[in-house]
């Protein structure tokens, strides 16, 4: 069994010392508190596995400690020590969430058995959490799925550079998954247990962006009624994701450059220099090199950001990934909307493969979300996607013949196109072709169109 961090709480010093002496075991790391307040301070500063507390304390009770544990969602178990006359209160504590109670006078062997049993439960919980983390590390983020060879190379590159401290610039059209890529890199980095802080540089007015990034002191400007940390400070030891970094004004570019170079900055209204250890990931959908040439973006800042460049491909350049992405979004919005749609009809996927996807993956996700919300069927069909259906209809209505095609080829092509347009409804196709149903079946067999 792994080591258990144990907090012993009793306001009688002799009892506390006796508990400490009686629980000297290799697998137990002991901490002691002689009051409720001291116990709370220890729980605030240390990660404790088990609290063993007397029910009645001079400045509170074991139940008060239990309430603190629950309110702060601590993964800490509580064992109550109680006198015979207050067993009912201990039972009430069990109903409120305490692990167990033990009645005075007790044998240390009984308390140790209780701790061993609890230790096994805590070990299993830790092991379960460890396995979940392993699976999370192995599977990564499901939004970044695909079989396209170039996309797989990009994923491997992101995994390779994630543990480094290097600044990363992610480029690509709107909706290609630049923010998800930043999350992916942070997840595989050595900073995954620290914050990933996101700032959309294009969505915040210039007058507010400086305060948002650098923070401010009380009285720095009208409305600054108290001190506030900026995003850079909050991201210390973690990652700061600057989306739409190409929208930064020249003045903000200068201020950001300093942080990238030295890790130093001042809050608005302060002369105290603060230093942070932040990993920067920036993203843009515009050509920063052209912006540098045009004098709209600082060259030195561009090279500071562009240490490692990752380009997220447009969806039209990885069309073979559409079925996988579509299935992922179907499962996601099934869960969010408590639905059980089984799948997507093949003609829908076929239409998706022909659609231009100017909004990229974001457009695909929005389209599937709408279809899931509105569908009352077990499968998503083409009519659930009006834009795709309209596009297919327009495509099917237009038929192009090339000079040099034989009459046989013309007839075969026209019959095939008509069958496609009516989703293989042969009765409708025969009426449009103005031939009998039997003749249509004969032509289908003759031209091998089955």
Going by CATH, the architecture of the largest domain would be: 3-Layer(aba) Sandwich
Mean pLDDT: 87
Supply the CATH superfamily name of the largest domain: P-loop containing nucleotide triphosphate hydrolases
Which segments are poorly predicted (pLDDT under 50) over 5 or more consecutive residues?
135-140
Supply the CATH class of the largest domain. Answer: Alpha Beta
Largest sheet: 5 strands, parallel
Percent of residues in β-strands: 5-15%
Proportion of helical residues: 40-55%
The name of the CATH topology of the largest domain is: Rossmann fold
Question: How would you concisely characterize the structure shown here?
Answer:
This protein has 450 residues and is α/β, with parallel strands linked by helices. 48% of the residues lie in helices and 15% in strands. The strands form six sheets. A five-stranded parallel beta sheet has the order 2-1-3-6-7, sandwiched between helices. It has a five-stranded parallel beta sheet with strand order 9-12-15-8-16. Strands 4-5 form a two-stranded antiparallel ribbon.
């Amino acid at each position: 069994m792994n080591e258990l961090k144990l907090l012993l709480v009793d306001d009688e010093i002799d009892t506390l010392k006796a508990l400490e002496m009686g629980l000297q075991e290799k697998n137990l790391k002991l901490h002691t508190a002689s009051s409720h307040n001291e116990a709370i301070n220890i729980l605030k500063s240390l990660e404790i596995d088990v609290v063993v507390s007397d029910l009645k304390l001079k400045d509170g009770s074991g139940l008060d400690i239990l309430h603190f544990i629950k309110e702060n969602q601590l993964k800490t178990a509580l064992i109550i020590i109680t006198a015979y006359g207050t067993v009912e209160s201990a039972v009430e504590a069990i109903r409120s969430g305490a692990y167990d109670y033990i009645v005075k006078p007790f044998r240390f062997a009984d308390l140790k058995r209780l701790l061993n049993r609890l230790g096994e439960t805590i070990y299993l919980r830790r092991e379960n959490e460890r396995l979940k983390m392993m699976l999370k590390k192995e599977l990564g983020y499901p939004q970044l799925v695909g079989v396209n060879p170039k996309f797989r190379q990009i994923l491997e590159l992101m995994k390779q550079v994630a543990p480094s401290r290097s600044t990363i610039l992610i480029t690509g059209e709107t909706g290609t998954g630049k923010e998800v890529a930043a999350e992916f890199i942070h997840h595989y980095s050595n900073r995954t247990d620290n914050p990933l802080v996101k700032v959309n540089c294009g969505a915040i007015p210039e007058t507010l962006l400086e305060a948002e990034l650098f923070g401010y002191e009380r009285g720095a400007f009208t409305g600054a009624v108290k001190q506030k940390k900026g995003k850079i400070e909050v991201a210390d030891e973690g990652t700061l994701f600057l989306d739409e970094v190409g929208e930064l004004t020249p003045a903000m570019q200068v201020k950001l450059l300093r942080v990238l170079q030295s890790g130093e900055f001042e809050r608005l209204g302060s002369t105290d220099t603060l230093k942070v250890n932040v990993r920067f990931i920036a993203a843009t959908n515009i050509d920063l090199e052209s912006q540098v040439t045009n004098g709209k973006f600082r060259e030195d800042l561009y090279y500071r950001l562009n240490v490692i460049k990752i380009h997220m491909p447009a969806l039209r350049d990885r069309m073979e990934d559409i079925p996988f992405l579509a299935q992922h979004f179907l499962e996601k919005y099934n869960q969010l909307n408590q639905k059980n749609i089984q799948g997507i009809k093949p003609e829908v996927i076929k239409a998706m493969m022909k659609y231009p996807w100017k909004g990229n993956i974001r457009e695909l996700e929005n389209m599937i979300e709408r279809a899931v919300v509105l569908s009352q069927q077990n499968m998503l069909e083409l009519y659930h996607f009006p834009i795709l259906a309209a596009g297919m209809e327009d495509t099917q209505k237009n038929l192009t013949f090339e000079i040099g095609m034989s009459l046989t080829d013309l007839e075969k092509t026209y019959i095939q196109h008509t069958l496609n347009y009516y989703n293989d409804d042969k009765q409708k196709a025969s009426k449009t072709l103005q031939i009998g149903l039997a003749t249509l079946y004969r032509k289908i067999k003759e031209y091998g169109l089955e």
